[in-house]
Design brief:
The complex is a heterodimer. In chain A, about 45% of the residues lie in helices and about 15% in strands. Chain A contains 21 helices and 17 strands. In chain A, the strands form 2 sheets. Chain A has an 8-stranded mixed β-sheet with strand order 1-8-7-3-4-5-6-2. In chain A, helix 7 links the parallel strand 4 and strand 5. In chain A, helix 10 packs parallel to helix 12, helix 12 runs parallel beside helix 14 and helix 17 packs parallel to helix 19. The longest helix of chain A has 23 residues. By secondary structure, chain B is α+β, with helices and mostly antiparallel strands. A 4-stranded antiparallel β-sheet of chain B has the order 1-4-2-3. In chain B, a hairpin with a 2-residue loop joins strand 2 and strand 3. Chain B is globular. Chain B starts with a strand and ends in a 5-residue tail after the last helix. Chains A and B meet through helix 2, helix 3 and helix 4 of A and helix 1 and helix 2 of B.
Amino acid sequence: MEKIYVEKTASRGIAISKIYKYEEMDLKPVQDKIGEQDKEEHIGKFLNARECVRKELEELAATNEIFSAHLEMVMDFTLEDSVKSKINNNSDNAESAVDEAISEVASVFEMMDDEYMKERASDIYDVGKRLMAQLKGVPLPDIGNIKEEVIILAKDLFPSDTVKINTDYVKGIVTEEGGVTSHVSIIAKNMGIPALVGVKGIFNKLNTGDIACMDAGKGIIVISPEEDVLNEYKQKQQEFENEKLRLEKLRDHSVVTKEGKKISLCVNVGNAEDIEKALPVKMDGVGLFRSELLYMENTHFPTEEEQFEVYKRAAMLCPSELTIRTLDIGGDKELPYFEFEKEDNPFLGWRAIRISLDMKEMFKEQLRAILRASAFGNVRIMFPMIISIEELKEAKAVVEECKQELRKEGISFCEDIETGMMMETPASVILAEEFAKEADFFSIGTNDLTQYLLAVDRGNKKIADKYSYFHPAVLNAIKHIINAGHKENIKIGMCGEMAGDINATKILLEYGLDEFSMSAGSIDYIREELLKLTGVI
Amino acid sequence: MVSKKVTIINPSGVHARPASILSKAATECSSEVLIIHGEKKIQPKSILNLMAAALKKGTEIEVQCDGENEEADLKKITELIESGLGE
């Protein structure tokens, strides 16, 4: 028996099954050079193979869009030119010409910065494999032929493989390559198949027919488990299924305390797609919309119009409250198109609201976009990193200025839009009573608050054990914030990691937290805990 | 030769699916089609070339068409990009 621990979970779940080792065919090209008289023939071979692949792909493209792109790729004239020139100029045979041309194209993608584009190299290799199999006249191995329950073990899985996965038989997936954004991860998640990707060295440890257990949520694979471990995993698997059903049933319950106060369960998101994906968990709203992603994944400061479209879509998707945090960059978050001066202490430096207030025109574009979106849903504005009443007043004054402009221009927005602030600096905690008079709501950002209160860098492994939001100083600060806010009758939310930590739920409920905001994956668990604590179930 | 400037509106930029739609449309054009992005020249008839250019949302590009049917081709390609390439 051997246990392997993995860091990247592609898709949660438990699987116990025989291993099906999905081995690559030997598609290495023959290397012989060819003579002048054979060049015509080899170009013909390539064109023939391509014609066969085109027919294959045309059939597949009818039911799956990925293959339309593959079809365009295989027929691409740059690929054709490249293969022909290798045959004509380097006297390569058809196989090695195709192999090299495909590698060249794929390497362009592999070198790109963008994770998504990097993964597209696998599409190109996929096309290359089809061409090569045709040239060699061998059939490609076929996942569609699996007719018993298995965990598929592969170096990597390509779109043409995953499309044939039958969930009746494929109970788990383990790959040696690939990241959590790779094709196989996305497909596995969609199909609800437990999957672990990027497990280095696993391929040679296992053979077809070996028994393995995997807990993809925890990132554990057990090879040839002993009897007791096997039983343990069988039980885990049953529990996982039961848990899923049990949690799904709770989604229609809302959390109300014994005193009759409704507790909101919200999600933290980076874009409108995240909201869409989270809708099945039935959250009460969005407690944190990180607007910085819009800035970070861009080539320029997003314009008012661009931002408006995004916020509007988010507002329309959101079941109720949508809390948009204004730009929070600096610290560890940079922009590709804007040069930040190097700072000795970036976390104590020019970041978040400090940047927004210094770059007022940019700030106004964002605020106008948020205000305009407020006509389409229940939108709230939240300022990050506030340390003084003056800052909060200044930010609110800019909001007021934008409102004036919009009124003049006759553009509609919600007049009573709420403006609140993140509670994440020690200064904001100490002055919480004053802030509560100025802000319409608070949201406690426990990640930064903990590191600023304890003077512990959360990224530093040496002192990682000192970083804890259960430190009495942090707990006291949270209690103080909630009390100060409630005195002024404003709602207090929390959008840091702590809100999604089931071990913290009880204490936060006791302190009187009104809103828990977390990643969508945690909602079901926290909802159940809250329902238990409030005596509903 | 005729040309027109357009902006990419696809939320995730010109990734595989929109690139496949654009390259298919460009291949159907009888004129020579070229996309200018900054210093880069991209051949939209090649999906590989298009994807490698990794055009992001909000990027302004210039479409050039040169040949017999250039007016109609330019209209077709720019309208396709402006409509979000099937997304």
